[in-house]
Specification:
2 copies of one chain form a homodimer.
Chain A (H helix, E strand, L loop, with lengths): L20 H10 E7 L4 E3 L7 E7 L2 E6 L5 E7 L4 E2 L1 H5 L6 E4 L3 E7 L3 H7 L1 H27 L2 H19 L6 E3 L4 H8 L3 H13 L4 E3 L2 E3 L3 H8 L14
Antiparallel strand pairs in A: 1-8, 2-7, 3-6, 3-8, 4-5, 4-7, 9-11, 10-11
Chain A binds a DNA duplex (30 and 30 nucleotides) through helix 7.
Protein name (chains A, B): CRP-like cAMP-binding protein
Pfam family, one (chains A, B): cNMP_binding
Keywords (chains A, B): DNA-binding, Transcription, Transcription regulation
Chain lengths: 243, 243
DNA sequence: CGTAACTTTGACCTAAGTCAAGGCGCGTGG
DNA sequence: CCACGCGCCTTGACTTAGGTCAAAGTTACG
């Protein structure tokens, strides 16, 4: 049975901004159900034009796009609270694939109602723009990372981002956070080869900066790793709207 | 003297979607003036929180961010019709620098009015989201390019994108389009070194696929270059809203 | 137990980076 | 009016970070 938005397990987490009562009411109407998928299931396909929008409630996934030469770029790792499908709604058709990596539960919205949401509820329309702009910002950072940083820096950057995100989500436990992906996924996210990713991770492990086993990433001192990444100047995950 | 939005030289270009009369009226109120800056002028600074938003009317520029190690990532090339400052408005403060590369004319809007725009005019709010989502999509492509393509492919990709953009804008003349940047800028956009960029451009020139002199890029057969880039599956610049 | 999906390691290779030196056009000031 | 300085492009010689190939561990599962 579906959770009521008012009792959403995510809302209230430090990461998410509070929502006014009337906006919550609107959300409730907008939400059409919940979807649970097994690990490995594709949620949205590149090119497809899904009639649904989602918010990840539980579990993790991957956004990726595949080039015509067969190579794959992981665009982002999906964690609870992420909104999926805005591109497909606003442009026409999805521009990347989203796939569940663990079992996931998703909040389902009706795409057709998006317009009525924008029309009827400016706060939520603003939040939507906020989300898109934030995603844009993230991709800018990722681009700068892949374009300008070395392998160690890239990996350190990614691990720090994930750790911070999980901390803000409240799913971190003493520097230990869920990271249920394969090394290949991380490699594809950072434009590195699997082998080099593996070796670089080994070096970070030796230096006691990060270890990652069995889907658990553990970064004892985020600050140290952030210094390795050369990300001193960066803002640590700010509060975001939850739709 | 400022151009009236109704006579905007851009509106009406094939690239841009038409705007309803009442939305135009709204735009007119939203617009507070015009700004002309000389080549080389920074328009928005990383970290700053400019009280203005802009739409590029004439001229070209660069969006870039600088990492703490001093390396620079060019995030995008700015052409007429691009909206500047959404990030700064919605998040807090600009996340990258925007700099004029030629003399530019910008349409100026009052950031404080953004909220009233979202509230009072759902069409425009939707367009705003559209713009952010499109920018996000572009950055995803760029990320995939820098992460997964070789040097030749990257450069070919960038040149094709610019050419297509200019064609849609109606500022292309038989495959010749304005591209007033330095090789260093292109290199920084693609995560390549200046030297390698130069040599790769030379090779494309020899193969008669693209030549670029004195700020003019000329791509005789976009399709051929697109094939070199490995971008067969890609959508050729769709119609976008102009704000 | 066998096999399939990941990770790890070692040996070798190459695309792209770095360094360094010239070239070319333009603006400034002597 | 010339020269010299500066910003940008070009080229060649050499180096290297990271890629590719290949094989052996490790688990998990049927």
């Amino acid at each position: 049975m579906a959770t009521d938005c008012a009792n959403c397990p995510l809302r209230g987490r430090p990461l998410f901004a509070a929502l006014a009562d009337k906006d919550l009411a609107f959300m409730r109407r907008f939400k059409v159900g919940e979807l649970t998928v097994e690990a490995g299931t594709p949620i949205m396909m590149e090119g497809s034009n899904s009639p649904q929008l989602f918010t990840a409630l539980r579990g993790m996934g991957i956004r990726a796009k595949t080039l015509s030469n067969g190579r794959r770029q992981v665009v982002n790792f999906v964690y609870p609270g992420d909104f999926l499908g805005l591109q497909s709604a606003v442009m026409d058709g999805m521009r990347h694939t989203v796939e569940a990596v663990t079992r996931m539960t998703l909040c389902v919205f009706d795409r057709k109602e998006l317009w009525s949401l924008v029309r009827g509820n400016p706060e939520l329309a603003y939040d939507l723009t906020w989300i898109a702009a934030t995603e844009e910002h993230f991709l800018g950072e990722a681009l700068a990372t892949v374009g300008q940083r070395t392998a160690v820096e890239r990996i350190a950057w990614a691990l720090v981002r994930v750790t911070r995100r999980c901390e803000a989500l409240g799913i971190a436990d003493a520097g230990r956070v869920p990271f249920p992906f394969r090394q290949q996924d991380l490699a594809d996210a950072l434009g590195l080869s699997l082998v080099h990713t593996n070796k670089t991770l080994a070096r970070l492990r030796e230096r006691q900066l990060a270890s990652w086993h069995d889907g658990i990433l553990s970064v004892p001192e985020t600050e140290k790793l952030a210094r390795v990444a050369g990300m001193e100047g960066e803002d640590p995950a700010e509060r975001r709207p939850l739709i």
